[in-house]
Specification:
alpha/beta, Rossmann fold, Zinc Finger, Delta Prime, domain 3, 5-stranded parallel beta sheet, 16 helices, 59% helix, binds zinc ion
């Protein structure tokens, strides 16, 4: 696997997460522990390695990506970097000696104090005892450490770990073929890009457009977003009157939260470059997202993105849908001041 290949694969599979994490590192906002929740083939290892390379790269590109050429990048790619500690289960379980190795490395990092990143794949295969000993290090991060815990199924993860990590859901990124198929299925252009961020299948997309649900949701989220950007306290009221009724069941509530992520992601994408409105999730509010992209500092936009990305984990943790959206709205309005 060449080093360009990993970063390119990560970008192809998870363009939004890659740009999100590159910006978190750039602005020094990387948290101590993340849970990357993604089915096989969604690029969780590639994104994890891209994050590791970006942390150590000596020659970050103009696009804010790891270069893939410098000695640090090369050592990480070769699996031979002393400060990138990677564990993959050996068979069905993460073995006791692998956990012992992890603990020893954590302890070492406390002494050395230098940047260190831990990547533990299939963390669901840890025994409860092993997971609990890992928790201690997540709870009391030592030195300059980052832990990336990877899983294909967060439902198998202990709640104690879920509650102490930031959960990042890896959604399968739609191939160009999906956009074409959506067009063939009669989906209007203004909804196509948004749908490719929400689902991988044409039939699931078609379910979302039934009875204009998607059109109504796109309008409601766009108006809520506009109110937030205008520092209009009525954004809070819109949660109750317009967003909450869209979430008639848990699945739809999840879709609404994903849609909220996308509207802020539109703004983030426009901060770096001009984006053709047809490539925005919310072309209707393009002038607003463009304005806020230039008004807000990168730090604030990244903070907002982080807060919106956290809502899916809150929903999975059984928090009330309305309460999640209200808390998010207050956090966002606070960033707008
Ligand atoms: Zn490099």
């Amino acid at each position: 696997m060449s080093e360009e290949f990993v970063v390119a694969t990560a970008q192809r599979l998870q363009p939004q997460l890659v740009s999100h994490f590159m910006q978190l590192i750039q602005s020094n906002h990387l948290a101590h522990a993340y849970l990357f929740n993604g089915a096989d083939g969604t690029g969780r290892q590639e994104v994890a390695r891209t994050v590791a390379m970006r942390l150590f790269c000596q020659n970050v590109t103009d696009d804010g990506l790891p270069c893939g050429q410098c000695p640090e990048c090369r050592r990480i790619m070769a699996g031979d970097h002393p400060d990138v500690v990677s564990v993959v289960p050996d068979g069905q379980r993460i073995k006791v000696d692998q956990v012992r190795y992890l603990k020893a490395e954590f302890t070492k990092s406390a002494v050395e104090g230098n940047q260190k990143i831990f990547i533990v794949d299939q963390v669901d295969r840890m025994t409860t005892g092993a997971a609990n000993s890992l928790l201690k290090f997540i709870e009391e991060p030592v030195g300059n450490t980052v832990a990336l815990l990877l899983t294909a199924n967060k439902n198998l993860i202990l709640p104690t770990i879920l509650s102490r990590t930031q959960i990042v859901d890896f959604i399968k990124v739609a191939p160009q073929a999906l956009t074409t198929a959506l067009a063939k299925a009669g989906i209007v252009p203004s909804q196509r890009y948004l749908l490719t961020t929400l689902t991988e299948s044409v039939s699931a997309a078609q379910e979302l457009v039934v009875d204009d649900w998607l059109a109504n949701a796109q309008t409601a989220v766009g108006q809520w977003f506009t109110a937030c950007c205008d520092r209009d306290e009525r954004a809070f009221v819109r949660v109750q009157t317009e967003l909450v009724p869209l979430g008639s069941n848990r699945d739809r509530q999840g879709v609404v939260l994903d849609m909220v992520v996308q509207v802020w992601h539109d703004a983030l994408r426009q901060q770096a470059n001009a984006v053709d409105p047809t490539d925005l999730a919310y072309p209707q509010v393009a002038p607003v997202s463009q304005r806020v992209a230039h008004q807000l500092s990168i730090d604030r936009l990244v903070t907002i993105m982080t807060e919106t990305l956290a809502t899916r984990g809150q929903l999975a943790g059984n928090l009330n849908f309305q309460a999640i959206l209200e808390a998010l709205t207050l956090q966002i309005l606070a960033q707008m001041r």
